[in-house]
Write a structure and sequence with these properties.
Largest sheet: 5 strands, mixed
Strand content: 5-15%
Shape: flat
Number of strands: 7
Structural class: alpha/beta
Distance between the termini: 65 Å
Strand order of the largest sheet: 3-2-1-4-5
Radius of gyration: 26 Å
Number of helices: 16
Helix content: 40-55%
């Protein structure tokens, strides 16, 4: 348990000589906008009996300068290993201004190794290192002191078992020749923009059925005000205004305090004083947005005639490819990706670049062009190459004209 500057600096020095460190955090966020960091757990590769190879850093109630730790996180010679890294990385980005680099997420690596979509840490611990976790402390109040021995054991297990998981998955990926695949995914996770919500873009998270320019302009202005205000006060967005109340105001578009008071879903605080003035000002900004600057909802393209069956074929192909190469379907392509391929003459989708094109995208395009077909056999679905004579159009009702090789 590290609660002094001297111990922190000593542990960081030891970690600098390691090829990687495993990292996890415990935090609370129910009452704040920014996560409140309660613990940092770390481990470096070492024999299991080396108890000094893992540590819990306690930043609460102690005057710790975490700069040495952040310097380690910037050290390109030491890989920083997380599981489901997003929230942990967001914390360190907020505190230090940088994303830990190089970054490795074992949840993504597990998807490349065929463990399914967004596999949990407990599952990997059981299946990869053959251990069981006591998860009874998962929902602890990590800000409360003192922490129990059970809490500390739970927290430490989140990084000690992660060493074996990382080494096993990385070895499997290297053996399969897929290290470049994982590197592509880690490059995206290493971008600070992945974790930052710009206030002017916060409206995109709203679930609205309206695509009207004025409605969306008001939604953009209100969501931006709420985001900035929540950050400044360090309170959850919903504490200021829930989404349904925000959308109600987008529809009502009140211009006076009296009109604002008629909103059914707005909290009492939003009906008076400076907050009410700020809300009305945001609505006014939205209404005054020039038409050419009003935000536009993502266009909903009508499906291309005949694309529905193609999407269904692509789904079968995706499932077959996923099982064949042992990579989670969700990591390869989404339903939107398949619809894009089926509907567009020149699809613009990540599936047609990088490792995804190699794993699935090129085969998907060949299926769409009629160069291959799918066949069912004793071993499941297989891809069948078609020659030119088998690619000619056939009346779908007259199945007798279909050649055996195309079925």
């Amino acid at each position: 348990m590290i609660r002094s500057q001297r111990d922190l600096e000593a542990f960081v020095r030891e970690c600098r000589d390691a090829p990687y460190v495993t990292v996890d955090t415990e935090f609370v966020r129910e009452r704040t906008y920014w996560p409140v960091l309660c613990l940092i757990q770390m481990a470096r590769p070492a024999p299991a009996e080396d108890k000094d190879a893992a540590a819990i850093i306690d930043p609460i109630g102690v005057d710790l300068d975490l700069s040495p730790l952040f310097d380690l996180f910037r050290d390109s010679d030491v890989v920083k290993v997380f599981h489901a890294a997003r929230q942990d990385v967001e914390i360190f980005l907020n505190l230090s201004g940088d994303v830990p680099t190089p970054l490795y997420d074992t949840q993504v690596a597990a998807m490349v190794c065929g463990f399914g979509d967004q596999v949990g840490y407990e599952t990997l611990v059981k299946r990869v290192v053959g251990a069981n976790l006591d998860k009874s402390s998962r929902f602890s109040d990590w800000a409360r002191r003192p922490l129990t021995d059970r809490q500390l054991a739970y927290a430490l297990a989140d990084v000690t078992h992660l060493r074996g998981i990382y080494e096993t998955l990385a070895a499997q990926i290297a053996e399969a020749g897929r290290s470049s695949w994982v590197a592509e995914e880690m490059a995206a996770l290493g971008q600070a923009s992945t974790y930052v919500t710009e206030p002017e873009e916060a409206w995109r998270r709203l679930k609205t059925r309206s695509s009207g320019g004025k409605f969306l302009a008001v939604a953009q202005a209100l969501a931006a005000w709420r985001e900035r205000e929540a950050q400044a006060r360090d309170v959850p967005r919903s504490r200021l205004m829930k989404d349904d109340a925000l959308l109600e105001l987008c529809a009502l578009q009140p211009k006076t305090a009296e009109e604002l008071s008629r909103a059914r879903l707005l909290f009492r605080e939003g009906r008076k004083g400076d907050v009410a003035d700020d809300i009305l000002a945001a609505i006014r900004r939205g209404l005054e947005t020039p038409k050419e600057e009003q935000p536009q909802a993502a266009p909903v393209k009508p499906p291309k005639p005949g694309s529905g069956p193609v999407v269904d074929l692509l789904k079968v192909l995706l499932k077959a490819c996923s099982e064949e190469i042992g990579v989670a379907q969700r990591l390869i392509a989404s339903s939107a990706d398949l619809e894009e391929i089926a509907s567009e003459d020149s699809p613009q989708t990540p599936v047609l670049s990088g490792w995804r094109r190699e794993a699935f995208g090129e085969t998907a395009m060949r299926l769409k062009r009629g160069e291959i077909a799918l066949a069912s056999g004793p071993d499941g679905v297989r891809v069948v190459a078609l020659d030119a004579s088998q690619q000619e159009d056939v009346d779908p009702v007259d199945v007798s004209k279909l050649s055996a090789g195309a079925v």
